[in-house]
Q: What sequence folds into this?
């Protein structure tokens, strides 16, 4: 989905790819070629996010957060980042607090203080962005309520 948004030039201000240094890509490719078998798991695990529950803080004064208590927990399985910025209404954001699951330090640092749930005006409408699957296995009630609030109240002007 995020690739579609970037490729089509949608222009939403919040999407950000995980930061990579220019020289880092060359070094990474070279290191990957010569990794010993025993070191491969450690090397690639530091760069991935197989799935961990993170703490999310919500702005409980925002109308789209009705019925959701802060903090709540969300399963995040990728490294997609939505930046907190002034042009969006940042309704909920991640902390670096890993509640459950494997999460490398580099992933926790990159996710810290990035948007989980935000609302942005785009042309004549609104785009509500959720940075994880809110209905995954249907037992995360906080994020499911946020999704329903976005569906039912999303077009209201706040």
A:
């Amino acid at each position: 989905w995020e690739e579609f948004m970037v490729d089509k030039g949608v222009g939403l201000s919040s999407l950000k790819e995980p930061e990579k240094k220019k020289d880092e890509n060359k070094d990474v490719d070279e290191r990957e070629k010569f990794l010993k078998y025993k070191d491969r798991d450690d090397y690639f695990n530091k760069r991935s996010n197989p799935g961990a529950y993170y703490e999310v803080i919500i702005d409980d004064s925002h109308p789209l957060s009705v019925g959701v208590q802060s903090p709540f927990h969300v399963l995040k399985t990728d490294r997609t980042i939505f930046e907190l910025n002034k042009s969006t209404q940042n309704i909920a954001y991640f902390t670096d607090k890993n509640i459950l699951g494997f999460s490398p330090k580099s992933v926790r640092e990159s996710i810290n203080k990035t948007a989980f749930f935000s609302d942005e005006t785009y042309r004549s409408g609104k785009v509500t962005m959720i940075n994880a699957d809110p209905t995954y296995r249907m037992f995360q009630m906080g994020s499911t309520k946020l999704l329903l609030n976005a569906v039912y109240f999303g077009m209201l002007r706040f």
Notes: The first strand starts at residue 15 and ends at 16. The longest helix spans residues 141-153. The mean pLDDT is 73.
